[in-house]
Structure formats: structure tokens, C-alpha cells
Amino acid sequence: MRKKYAPMFMALMCISAGSVACAAEMTEGENTEVIEIKTAEELEAIHENLSGNFVLAADIDLGGMEWTPLGSFVQAGEEGEEAETPDMEYAFTGTFDGQGHTISNFTINQPEGWALGLFGCIANTEIGNFMVENAAADGTVMVSAVVGYSYCSTVHDVTVDGAVITAHASEMSGEGMYGGVVAAGMMSTITGCSADADIIIPDNTANAGIVGGGLELTSVTDSSASGTITAGDNCYGLGGISGCGFGAGEFTGCTAENVTVTAGDNCYWIGGLTGYAGGYEDEEAGIPVTEISGCIVKDIEITTGENADGIGEIVGAGFFMEGLAEAYGMDIYANPTVYNVSDCTTENVTISISDVESGADNANGILTAIAGENGTTYENFFDVTLAEENYDLWYDCTAAIVGESAAADTVAFMQGYISSEMYGEEAIEYYTENPDAQTMFDCFYINGLKQVTFNPDNTITVLLEDGTTETHAYEYIGVYNVGEGETMVYMGEEISVAFPCDVYRSTDEAGEFNYFFLRDDTMEETGHIEFRYGKDLEELQGYFAGPYAYWLTAGFDVDADEETLKNTVELFVLENMDYSAHSEEAVSQLSDFIGTWNADLSGFGEEYAGIELYFTIDENGHGFTMMNGEQTTDFEAYAYDNGEKGDGAGIYIAYSNLEYEAEAAAYTLETNDSGETVLTLYAKDGVISYKKAS
Question: What pLDDT was estimated at residue 237?
């Protein structure tokens, strides 16, 4: 479920990677005078005193007035942090205490406007303790009944009753942000708020929630939502409480009840509580992991068109955008955001998808993709790959990288890492008593499982060792994270073990098969699937704790061919090797490859005519590729003669120093009739030959 989409706040409010800081602490303003507001005229007069301190001393019925928001969002600058920071001259920076009164019956009609609400933009302040009743707001970006954009502020104890928020498409509307109480929040807090609202957004818009729309580094506590969200095609970030909670510290004590979300085709990241949420465990990222606790999601109906993706009862998904790591120079951003769900309850949540297509990108999560059109049966992957007859698949690839003399020990280490027969409390006790022991995981099927069949109708059939079978129906309940906050040391480095899973719950009593946690692997992409199963939702989220500690299993299609098995073992080896240095032996194995190799593109069609392509490998195993005079790759090369020695056939591996990934290919080295040395690589995606330059 990883997609190439723009950050939530586009250029206007781009993901800040923790760089933005609140301009000032919340304050009651330099002016300590408190001004009472009793009439519509006095409420309008706030426009002339945006830094004043106000208390509402009476209910105000605006009688259908077309309202101009108090304070507006004018960017302090066009780039970076300044693009997200309001110019304080135009924002509301005073305080507003409603003292339990109501402001009712107003409209905002600015179809091309942004930062709209009773308050357009508030900054470094606090407002609350009032009700907004029968408000209607039309706009393009950051549209709400109460606050369009909240920057470094607190909005508390605000009730919205009967609001209608309508978005209009324009060049600015792609990222949207629409909410009943706060449309867009940056480093703010929403607490004790309640909203009953209807939100309508057109095609190609995003981030709509009945309390908050697009919330960045903004927590929501003790708040509730009811109402409807109606979205067009190609929309994302829709949820009962909020459309998103990127970097939100917490969603605590919130209730989404009697909420209906209706979305068109190609919509994604939709949740009963929030559409997407989370942050990163690495403190350097400056975006905290989101803690979701004590929340209730009840009587929710989510309906989408075709190709829905990332839909959950509580959270739709963690935020992810390819390219963030490069844009912000930190590898952590290459991962989906992390959030924890605890002590939350769901009741009567229904998810309906029209014409769901087969594939991983749909509201059924990954199950449809791993089931295939007719259902797929999986045996244990490591029972197959660790079989003695498949040892050479491990050895050959490993020998190319570490050298032949070190290959056996390296294979033993890697196989040991995934072949423990100890998990749960036994493993916890062992590693507590032996903290320096190599960490090993039990990756085999447990609780008598022999084979498992995933079916496209959301049923799962288990074949047990005693020959009996069970079939249960499952419902998709969203994305949950395993191993949150847990780390381990691997190859000398401490790494996070947290990973997201699509979670399915049995609709009947299935015992140890009540829940299936499925990672996003498919046979097509990685040659295997990875999953957990068990009887308790919370216990299955512990990777180093509880009865499922140190256990993650994998499945392999019983009908897969030998080439798939070979490619899958190669992938496992390549992903778990250390490429930090060439051993002398590994470099010596490359002796036949040192030099420059010119590609033969004659068989690739007219589009490749005239293209000059070659690669060079030096005596240290370092290589680079040139195409038409420009360098396209930088890599480390490895090779191993894995057949009859000296027969010119083996395995070749290139590790990219730019993408940090390795690829393997079988090779042959031959001398043609002209006396030229020809290297042919047989990769998964094709065959290509090179002639060695003299």
C-alpha cells in the first residue's frame, strides 16, 4: 500500500520533518483587557482587534449572515518553514472564551477561498467553550465551521451542531483539509470538542474529518464525531474524527459514532477514527509516533467505489510517500508512519467496496492479492528452503559476496536466524538469561498448522497436521503495527523491528486462528508471504513480548516452480548480507570481470540504436555504468563460479551504492569466433551480453 503521492499540505503546508517550531508560547496577549461580546456587531468588530482577549457574554444568532472569518492565513514566506507559518499581523492571536454560549446561523460562501471558518486562522492562542450551530461553509482549502487553520494553538470544548462543509475544486484543492471544528491543524491541540457535520468534497481532494481535517503534529483528545463525509473519485484521508493525524502525539478518549463515509473510485486511507496517522520512532525525525487509546468506533458505515486501498475500522493506514527519504535526507522517511492502537473498541463497523478488483490495492487489504483468483495454498516457506537439497541456493549466492571460505559459516548464521524452534515465554526467558546470544526467530507454522489456503471470498482454510481442516470467514479490520517500540541488534546495529500488517478477524470462534496478521508481501513481488496468526489481537502485536514473541512465519505457494524458489532464496540472502567491505577472497573471485564491458544492444530494437552503454569494474570490485556519456549506476560487484570450476558459468551480483539494493544474475563467460570475451547475464527481467574492451 505504498503510493507516490504528494505530502499532505503540498507547498502551502509541506511535511516539515520537525523543522517548524511554534513562534511563541500561548498567551493571553500583551493587552490584558477582557472584552465582552454580546451582539453580532461586537463579534464582527473583532476583525479590528485580532490580538484582543474576548469573552462571549450572550448567545448570538447571526440570522443567516454571510460571515467573513476572523483572522486570515497569509504565509510569512513562500518556502520552507515560512510557508507554513502565518503572518501574525493577519491571524487571530488573541483569546476567545465562549463561556458556554452559542453562535448560530451563518454562512461562508467563498468557493475559491481558503482558511475559512468562524475563525479563518488562529496562531499561538487558545479558543474554546462555545457552540457553533447551523453553519454552512463553502471554500477550496482549509474549510471548517469553526477554525480554518490552527497554528500552535489549542481549541477546546467547542461543539458544532448541524454544520455543512462544502469543498470546491480548483488548482489549490488537491490537498483539501476540511473539518467540522478545525480544517487544518499545525502543532496544535484539539480537546473536549464535539461535531455533528456533513462534509462534501469533490474529485481529487483530501483530508476530511468531522472534527479535524488535515492535522499535522496535532493531537485530539476527549472529542466526538457524528455525521457524513461524501467524497468523489481519487480522494484520500477520510475519517470520523480526522482525515489524517500525521505526527499526532495522541488520539485519546475519542468517539466516532453514527458516521457514514461514502467515497468514489480510487480512494484510499479511510478509517472509522482517522484516515491515516503516525510518525517515526527515530527522535531525529521530529515526528512522534501516534498513540491511539481509549477510543470508541461505533455504528460506522464506509462505502467506496472501485480500487479502494487502506481502509480500516479504526485507522486506514500509516502515511507513506516515495521520495520523502531523498527529499528530507533521512532514511527513516522511506517507511510508513507508525501508530499504536490500544484499549480501543469497535462495534457495528461495515465496509463495502463496489467491484473490488483482484490485487493488493483494495479495501480488503492484502488478502485478495495473496489469495489470487481461485485461492492459493501455502506451505511453510522455511520447511522448503531449509531442506538439504536446496542448500546450494543459499551457498552460491553467499559465496559470491563473502568468499568461498566464509560461505558455510555465513549461511549457517542466516539459516540459524530464522530456524529457531523456540518462541513465546520460553524464548523470552532464554534471551533474558543469555543477552549476548544470537537472536533467532521461530519461522515455522505453530499450533498444528500444516498448510493454509487464502480464498478470494475472505475465507481462510487451515489444514492441520492431524489431517483435519477448518474454514472460517474473516473481516478486514485495518492496519496494526507489530513490535512497536521494540529494537534488536542485527549485524552489530540496533534496529527497530516494528512493521505494519493488514489484520483480519474471524467472524466466528476460530481459537488460535481468530486473527491473521498479513504483511504486504506477495508471491509476485517477493516469492513468499509473511504472517502471524493467533487468538488475541493485542498479544499478536508483541514481537519480543507475550505468547508469540520471537515468531513470524512465512508461506510458499505449493504450486510454485523451482525458479521461483531460487529467486526467493536469492532475495533473502541479498537482503540480509553485509556489503560494507569486499573481502580479499571475494575480490579475487572477480578477476575475470575486471575491465570495461560494452553492451550489445543489437537485439533490443530500434529504440536502442545509437545508445552507448558500458560498465567498468576495477581491481577492488567497485564498478559504475555509463550511458551516452553519463554515469547511471555506482555499484560493488561480486561473482562466484558455482558450477564445474573454470567452466565460465556462475552467479554475478551487483550491489547499488545509490539505491542500497542488490541484484543477482546467472552468468556465462565465453570466447566468440573473433576471440572476444563475451559476458552474458541471465537476470529475472531479461538477458543481455557484453563484450570486454581490449
Answer: 94
